[in-house]
Design brief:
single chain, alpha+beta, 4 helices
Length: 65
């Protein structure tokens, strides 16, 4: 994946599609420091860097906890 693509911001719907983790479970994982934290895009909008999500998925596939 090129550098530009890795900087892309994704929203909740795509995060859910990529990870398969429900919003409430993801929230708990974020709070526990076990998943990438979102950042604010506006008053009620949040997002993640796709690179952070893909790295998290890779770590799970490799068996890291």
């Amino acid at each position: 994946m090129n550098q530009e693509t890795r900087k892309r911001i994704i929203r909740e719907k795509e995060r859910l599609y990529l990870t398969g983790v429900s919003p409430s479970t993801w929230w708990r994982l974020e709070k526990a420091g076990k998943a990438p934290k979102c950042f604010k895009l506006g008053p009620s909008a949040k997002g993640w860097l796709i690179s952070d999500i893909e790295d998290w998925i890779s770590s799970k596939a490799e068996g890291e906890v």
